[in-house]
Amino acid sequence: MWLSRRIRLAGVATVSAAVFSLTLAGCSDEGAPGPGSPPPDRAGTTSKAAAPSPSPTRTHPVSEEPATIPSVRSHQAARGPGWSRTADSGVVVAKGSEALSDEGRLLAQELKLTYRGAVAAGAGDVELALAGDGAAESYTLTTSGGRVRITGPDEAGVFYGTRTLKQAVRSGGSMPEGVVRDRPDRPQRGLNLDIARKHFTAEWIEDRLREMADLKLNQLGLHFSDDQAFRIQSDSHPEVVSEQHLTKDEVRRILALADRLHITVFGEIDSPGHLGAVLRAHPQLQLRNTQGTPRRGAIDISQPDAARIIDDLLREYTALFPGAWFHVGADEYQALTVSNPAASYPQLARAAVQKYGAGATIEDLAEGWLNDRAEVVREAGKTPKAWNDGFFGGGEVTVDKGIEVEYWTGKEIGARPPVEYLAEGRRVVNLNDEFLYYVLGEPNQFTYPTGRRIYEQWTPLVLRGTRAVPEKYSAQILGGRFAVWCDLANAQTQDQVAAGIRRPLQATAQKLWDPRQPERSWQSFDQLARELG
Asked: What would the DSSP string read from start to end of 346-402?
């Protein structure tokens, strides 16, 4: 009997201790979460670091990561109710952070809240603040005590925090308790749009900007000059502009929206190839072989007037686009696709020798053309970009290393494996045509890319085909863009293009923000994408 009584007393003591422990835990439901771990490594080398796992209480379970695209890099779970909109909720900016008023107003409009400006945060509010010295575009989102506070070292980072909050509310109805610490893996993340072969309205482009912003994409490249058309109003050479085009006022409207959404828009005037629209107005500059046969889209770079007209256009449009970059093309110069370029185009061969010496070739002349056009862009205070097949190796002329290599192919004449560009110390942007090229009508063995293939197989290190370059080059790969090319312009309508690129663009955004193997399965990602719209 004494033994059984001792057992009963021990059981009571155990239960009492457990109840006391749960009571203490329950008292801390609304407390602020503790400090979290630093963001995990970049470039797909590790899996997500496991956040602390507090025990659930009787009133609130442990929070789960918010469901967003792209997914957040780090979420510290906590016990608490999270944040949901109430009748009294509003958006405020911290004192000294009035520069965030645009971000605050937009978020308030999207979540149907009141924007109250630079006042103290109250119960149920969302507060935005510029704070900290973290990486560019990074942010911290803290949900505690029925409030949300989003901080970042720059306006872009805080803006991306508002995108996380917006998506969390849309996918789950609320923002989970805890702390999100988030940052992009690559600085350049975007969409490239061929508006030369197919006219897209300003309104359609603005809709894409809004979609891009929610995906934390920050770059839009506009390829607006090609053989088929020249699609932006020109004051310096109005004779080259096609009937259907964007006016400069429409472009400025696009640029103003992009600026509010922290997206940089830059233009591209491709030369010395892809200039058919310009050459229709200036046929005397068309490249012709010894029989007088014109070469489609190719300008005769031995003629001084060729450089003058292209530089006129570059100066005009670098002034129109205020962003940090401008694209000068340089791909697929048709003079170099024949079996003997020097025999077919002796004027180019003579110009090369005259300018660069006895050993110079037409490839050297083309690279010199690229350097000269890039210098015009630099004079406008911008970084030039050019397609990788305009960079040749081993000649008398070397393309300036300040030009960013836009790597799209290893198949064209002049194209080399990506490691060769990286080994030269060049900075590269990924537009791998195996994964990231949406070519209307699917000509030349192109097929429409799928979001699943990008999500499961592509990373920024996969520059050509399906094989990644060595990790040691990761820092030289600045990011990537999903590209729409309109080779068969009537194969799809504007609406069909928008629908067709939606899932691939979402997958691209995920892998540019965080290239590691995603924790979500493709099926789960696809379902989330449907919920987010």
From this structure: HHHHHHHHHHH-TT--HHHHHHHHHHHHHHHHHHTT-EEEEEGGG---SSS----TT
Q: How far apart are CA 106 and CA 149, in angstroms?
A: 16
Both tokens assigned to 392? 């040749």
Instruction: Report the alpha-carbon distance of residue 200 to residue 186 in Å, rounded.
Output: 28
Phi, psi of 82 (to 5 degrees): 75, -165
Report the C-alpha gap between 513 and 50 in whole angstroms. Answer: 19
Give the span between the Cα atoms of 198 and 195, in whole angstroms. 5
Q: What is the DSSP letter of 55?
A: P
pLDDT for the residue numbered 132: 81
CA nearest neighbour of 406 among 423, 433, 386: 386
φ/ψ of 209, rounded to 5, equals: -60, -40
Alpha-carbon distances, residue 519 vs 43, 392, 507 (angstroms):
15, 41, 13
Residue positions counted in the chain: 533
Tell me the three state secondary structure of residue 110: helix
DSSP-based three-state secondary structure for 341: helix
Which residue type, as a one-letter code, is found at position 250?
E
Could you tell me which residues come within 8 angstroms of residue 442 by beta carbon, excluding any fewer than 6 positions away?
448, 491
Residue in 434, 446, 520, 517 with CA at minimum distance from that of residue 480? 434
Q: CB-based contacts of 487: which residues, under 8 Å, 6+ apart?
A: 197, 439, 440, 441, 443, 444
Across 132-273, where does the E strand assignment appear?
Answer: 139-144, 147-152, 178-182, 188-194, 219-225, 264-271
Instruction: Read off the tokens for 168.
Output: 């969390």
Instruction: In whole angstroms, give the CA distance from residue 203 to residue 205.
Output: 5
Q: How far apart are CA 23 and CA 90, in angstroms?
A: 33
CB atoms within 10 A of CB 346: 14
Q: How far apart are CA 63 and CA 66, in angstroms?
A: 9
So what's the pLDDT on residue 58?
59
* Cα gap 367→408, rounded to integer Å: 18
Largest CA distance in the chain: 117
Say what the pTM is.
0.89
Q: What is the pLDDT of residue 20?
A: 31
Mean pLDDT in each 10-residue stretch from start to end of the chain (533 residues)?
Answer: 34 35 34 37 42 57 96 97 96 98 98 97 97 93 97 98 98 97 98 98 98 98 98 98 98 98 98 98 98 97 98 98 98 96 98 97 98 98 98 95 96 89 98 98 97 98 97 98 98 98 98 97 98 93
Question: CB–CB of 140/151 below 8 Å?
Answer: yes
**Which contiguous run of DSSP H or E holds residue 439?**
strand 437-439
DSSP 339: S
Nearest CA to 460 out of 45, 39, 40 is that of 45
DSSP H or E run through 514:
none
Distance set, CA 331 to CA 167, 301, 388, 526 (Å): 39, 14, 7, 35
Q: Omega before 518 cis (within 30°)?
A: no
